[in-house]
Amino acid sequence: MAAENKMGTMPVNRLLVSMAVPLMISNLVQALYNIVDSIFVSRITSEEVVLDAAGNVVSAGTDAIGALGLAFPIQLVIIALAMGTSVGVGSLLSRSLGEGNQKRANSSAMHGIVLMILSYGISLFIGVFLAKACIAGQGATGRTLAYGTTYLRIVCCLSLAVFMEIMFERLLQSTGRSVLAMVAQMVGAIINVIMDPILIFGLFGAPKLGVAGAAYATVFGQIVATILGIYFNVKKNPDIQLHFKEFSWDWNVVKNIYVVGAPAIILQGAGSVMNFGMNAILNSLHATAVAVFTVYYKLQSFFFMPMFGLNNALIPIVAYNYGAKKKHRLKQAHRLAMIYSFGLAMIGFGAFELIPDVLIRIFDTGDASLLSIGVPALRIIGIHYLAAWYCIITGGVFQGVGNGIYSMINSLSRQLVVLLPAAFILSKLGGLDAVWWSFPIAEVASMSLTVYFYTRINRNILGALPDTE
Q1: Nearest alpha-carbon partner for 314 in 7, 2, 6, 3
Q2: Helix axis angle, 102-125 relative to 142-157, nearest 10°?
Q3: Calpha distance 257→174 (Å, rounded)
Q4: How many CB atoms lie within 10 A of CB 368?
Q5: What is the DSSP string of 180-248?
Q6: Half-sphere exposure of 195 toward its Cβ, with a 13 Å CA cutoff?
Q7: Quick check: 78 pLDDT over 90?
């Protein structure tokens, strides 16, 4: 009741900030997993001389960054399975606790753990049998193919850790212990940062593993975070009891999990398809372009992740005040979240427009082509920040009032209906320089759809909502 009263009575600005900051920090920590590997592998060297189509020498670091970018769409599939399942488990768990149904709450948590183990089987199959085909299918050859296959095989075969980490952190978040989940994430990320240079470059007597070292460091960080997540749930989370001797499989529980979780899996999976397709298009134009796209994707996470934290904080505030018929508080929360998100977006826009060379040099491979291709690419892509902030935050309103299908349609349309076809067409019409415009084009289309959906919700749902304040 205290949490419900807080969402209905605490000053909206303080409420939004207090709920958003831990989520923003958690998201930034999660972004570390995506960026640290690439920073360190960009320093990898090799005696092998590789030339691009123009006869320029391509460094091992550039090929390594490209390899991680080619592995990323498959990693997104793993994350989609894990995140979608955990979202469904968290929803059923929170609802069961709210209804006072402890038995179903425990059952949902235990089903979630079992489902994660079963999902890991898919990842293991990919790692053992399909890793090379997944990398080659995006146009990779030579050293990039070898690096990408090695990295992907390791992270897939050892991905049980990431499935378990995501699940145990979601159990903490769903019972109101997001700070403990944040601690587990942060410790795992710190371990990853420490182990990356040690295993990549062979420091302190460790073997010099190169790209494989980056994969092992990531897995090692995930294992530590999982151990912490288990400890926190067993010792610090009295709201659930994980007693597998009492566990019995219940298809109705599984159905309830995936009614909520399946759309989240589809939504996350769309990102995998988009990345796979973009890598294939870019690889057909210039091998270094894949490394540039990878660098962009890593950099943008530091500006987008805080916005997603705001979005995740906004959803329950909107949902509660919608249910309580407090329209004024709902709209105030939306307005404040847009203001904060706009500020974050302007920081990202300014960085991409004013200092793209500085950002790219974080991944210093020594290749002139990374800068010559990357600087104009970041400046063009950076334009999409001007629209993205609105789409992210307003999507939280859609979910909060029970119209999450609008968010799913919007995301699928942006990535698969507009961005990929636009990139393909522009690659044929204007080559590599034109491809980058597909990002602003897709974001403008997404913003237009968001405005249309919000107008409908404002007229048909919020407009008819009485305000009890």
Answers
A1: 7
A2: 150
A3: 14
A4: 11
A5: HHHHHHHHHHHHHHHHHHHHHHTGGG----THHHHHHHHHHHHHHHHHHHHHHHHHH-TT----GGG--
A6: 22
A7: yes
Tokens 């059923």 identify what position?
92
Look at residue 5 in the predicted model and tell me its pLDDT: 44
Q: Rounded CA gap, 178 and 224, in Å?
A: 18
Task: Note whether residue 467 is domain-resident.
Answer: no
Q: How many residues does the chain have?
A: 469
The count of domains in the chain is 1
CA distance 73 to 75: 5
Which two structure tokens, joined as six digits, stand for 284? 């057909």
Please provide the DSSP assignment of 239-285 as one string: T----GGG----HHHHHHHHHHHHHHHHHHHHHHHHHHHHHHHHHHH
User: 234, 242 in Cβ contact below 8 A?
Assistant: yes
Please state, as a whole number, how many other Cβ atoms lie within 10 Å of the Cβ of residue 193. 17
286-312 pLDDT tens trace: 979 999 999 998 899 888 988 988 888
CB-based contacts of 44: which residues, under 8 Å, 6+ apart?
A: 60, 61, 64, 200, 210, 211
Task: Tell which residue, 417, 403, 418, 416, has the closest CA to residue 455.
Answer: 403
Q: Are 231 and 102 in contact (CB under 8 A)?
A: no
E strands of 329-451, at which residues? none
Tell which residue, 31, 30, 75, has the closest CA to residue 348: 31
Sign of CA dihedral 402, 403, 405, 411: negative
Please report whether residue 303 resides in a domain. Answer: yes
Structure tokens at 66: 């490209």
**Residue 151 belongs to domain spanning:** 2-462
- For residue 394, being part of any structural domain is answered with yes
Residue in the block written with tokens 């897995």: 219
The percentage of the chain sitting over the pLDDT mark of 70, rounded to a whole number, equals: 95
Domain membership flag for residue 112: yes
Helix (H) or strand (E) holding 50: strand 50-51
Average pLDDT value for residue range 225-252:
91
The answer to whether 376 and 433 have CB atoms below 8 angstroms apart is yes
**Longest Cα–Cα distance in the chain:** 72
pTM here is 0.87
Q: CB of 152 within 8 A of CB of 135? A: yes
DSSP 401: T
